[in-house]
Design brief:
Helices cover 29% and strands 24% of the residues. It is an alpha+beta fold. The termini are far apart. The relative contact order is 0.19.
Length: 131
């Protein structure tokens, strides 16, 4: 199984777990292959875009977007056993939040990194729900 297939599997597992953890919020992980492979994770503490302020998803008080690069800096797909990182791209929570803190997540595989991200969401679930 190559790293793109592993990332697709990790995305499916994340989507299933998040639908149970946050059933009334938007959460989606998807693998994108344009401009190099990446797994993009989006989360918003609203049920639909219509519920976001001014109907703009990025205006939600708990909007977050993460990315796991699946290619190197030359656009070459990573080796199947290459370590990966999940970086925080955007979030609407105050950066120096006392309640919710995020550090870059590293894993030996996409599945391991996504499991760590899920644990982070579980750990911060109450604080996220209170946003």
């Amino acid at each position: 199984m190559n790293i793109i297939e592993k990332a697709n599997k990790a995305a499916e597992q994340f989507n299933a777990a998040m639908s149970e953890l946050f059933p009334s919020y938007m959460a989606k992980a998807v693998v994108s292959t344009n401009l190099g492979g990446a797994l993009v994770i989006s989360f918003a503490n609203v049920a639909s875009v219509e519920e976001a302020p001014n109907k703009i998803l990025m205006n939600a008080s708990g909007y977050m977007r993460f990315m796991m690069h699946l290619t190197d800096n030359r656009g070459k797909t990573l080796a199947d056993d290459a370590p990966v990182e999940i970086e925080l791209l955007t979030w609407s929570i105050p950066y120096k939040s006392e309640v919710i803190k995020y550090r870059k997540i590293k894993g030996k595989s996409p599945e391991e990194a996504m499991q760590k991200l899920l644990k982070w969401f579980e750990k911060n679930a109450e604080a996220i729900r209170s946003l």
